[in-house]
């Protein structure tokens, strides 16, 4: 039984879609993609960029309309990225990936690593994954509000490494969450495990974010810290958020 026909999957028409972006050059490095946002996430990170997509009921079953829009963009886009929320939460994700591939698009996924077994099932349907690695494993629960979340995220990393998938790891960083020692230790652990592509995304506080997420001072992280981390990876990038 393949990922698209798993008994734990649902028809694409039942996907809870919270929105979409028709063209993006930054959600899949080197590719022009549409981004489909699926509602629902089991974690409650205090700095969540899309808090309106945490609840499944905030998404709507509008795949038929979105399918027609994507069909019109064949030849204009390289692929479709499923983001969220946490897209692995949606039982319709395998069917969505299968349909997108049938249209001729490459398939990408943004995931925080909440559901290792669901990731295992859809890996054959994915061309690329952007995996959020938030912090060191032992510090995850305080950040996500979910016990065992660190083990699940790093289990997803193990799956990607074992499968040989094209992927990058990225960490959203802020001085209130990561000191220099944490950044260096996390980068060292990822490099030791075999990660080749890594990115830092600087947390840019918005009106929904409470203290202590103050604006990041210019020059953080320091240049020497960035240089030490860059030396560990084939590709390393600092993104402004």
UniProtKB/TrEMBL annotation:
Keywords: 4Fe-4S, Iron, Iron-sulfur, Metal-binding, S-adenosyl-L-methionine
Keyword Zinc-finger: no
Alphabetical list of SUPFAM superfamilies matching this protein: Radical SAM enzymes
Keyword check for Lipoprotein: no
Necessary cofactors: [4Fe-4S] cluster
Domain of life: Bacteria
Family annotation (CDD domains): Radical_SAM
Classification via InterPro entries: Aldolase_TIM, NrdG2, Organic_radical-activating, rSAM, rSAM_sf
Domain Radical SAM core: 28-241
PANTHER family hit by this protein: GLYCYL-RADICAL ENZYME ACTIVATING ENZYME YJJW-RELATED, PYRUVATE FORMATE-LYASE-ACTIVATING ENZYME
Protein's name according to its UniProt entry: Anaerobic ribonucleoside-triphosphate reductase activating protein
Organism, as annotated: Vogesella facilis
